[in-house]
TrEMBL record:
GO MF, one example: potassium:chloride symporter activity
NCBIfam families in UniProt: 2a38
Lineage of producing organism: Bacteria, Bacillati, Bacillota, Clostridia, Lachnospirales
Protein name: Trk family potassium uptake protein
Membrane topology: Multi-pass membrane protein
InterPro entries membership: Cat_transpt (IPR003445), TrkH (IPR004772)
One Gene Ontology term, aspect cellular component: plasma membrane
Organism field: Mediterraneibacter hominis
Amino acid sequence: MGRAGKRLTQTQMIVIGYVLIIAAGTFLLILPVSTREGIFTSPVDALFTATSASCVTGLVIADTFQHWSVFGQTVILSLIQIGGLGFMTIGVFFAIILRRKIGLWTRGTLQESVNIMQVGGIVRLVKKIIIGTLFFEGTGALILSWRFSQTMELGKAVYFGIFHSISAFCNAGFDLMGEEAAYSSFTSYSGDWVVNVVLMLLIIIGGIGFFVWNDISIHKFHFRKYRLHTKITLFVTAVLIFGGAALLFVFEQGNTIEGRPVDEQILCSLFGSVTARTAGFNTVDTGALTDSSKILTIILMFIGGSPGSTAGGIKTTTFAVLLVYVHANLRQKHDCDIFHRRLDNGAIRKASAVMSINLFLSVMAVLIIVTIHTIDATDVAFEVVSAMGTVGMSTGITRELGNVAKFTLIFLMYCGRVGSMTFALSLRGHKVEAPVREPAEQIMIG
């Protein structure tokens, strides 16, 4: 890393890195070769799509299959893969292949990028991340290609299998199913267990985090030996998936799943719960969901996946820490304990900050968009949280928005991917606060 790079903080390096990736993607998507009709795409729409792909969101202003050419789709898929793994992870992997020395500053930046707790062993972890990604995406692509080949020609089936496997694993939500009907996603596969299960597994595996992979690979299925982070991640993930599915099953009776076989109703509910955790696909019409289901989906999208993963949101651990903190306060306990371990005060402060920043940005974005457009506030909130959580689910209003609203969502997607805390800290630079404490005084709370 050159001197100019080292003058940047690690958070600034991450923030600038994603800006450069988005800029490159925007330039390529503007070109006529990127569209089926061979026309220039407006800079705002190209920027929106490049940001959505790089930040593994999935919100679109044009149907991916119908608007973009194979070249444009390949650009989008490349941005998804880079954004999902993180450009630092890919950069370090190539440095390993070229046998370049990886310095402490680069290791620290990589640690910040993938949100790992320690620098030690991080290069070995990068190797596991790349190998694991190739294995899971490759396996998913093979199964999906086989399934698609039953209704498509082989070459197209393989292409569709690879595209959707990468998109699912990276929790991106981009799809090519618009060939039948624009913005239809996987609604025609709502009862297909093979496609649904493969996509759900890829979404879950990609969304639990690289640190969790490593812990499970070391300790196998011995839950008691897992690190506290892994235990919390797996427990909260399971509760959100099955709890969310049960509620969606109840809320959508008499609505989107009415008249379907029971097994398909269960499958649609499970898929809806899993995809809301930042994947962005859908097997039922998202715009037709009941208000109860929309609000539930907003909550699931806001929580998102887990730290150090391809997912967005405030993260499962943040959600768990805040619940434990509230519970401890209600019981007037000094310590916050979970799984027979005490949470560090720093984790509680960071969780509170992440929650507050994301909530503030989401509320402000809703106010901006509802002021500009006459759109139902629930649908706007749905779209905003989908962008902030890098989910990509949409009630269909994205393509109706003006440029100000689009730029608002672009900013949210960007903050959602780099991390709201990381973005905020990047503005601080190298400034070091003086170790001085002001006099304390009590105020009334509540």
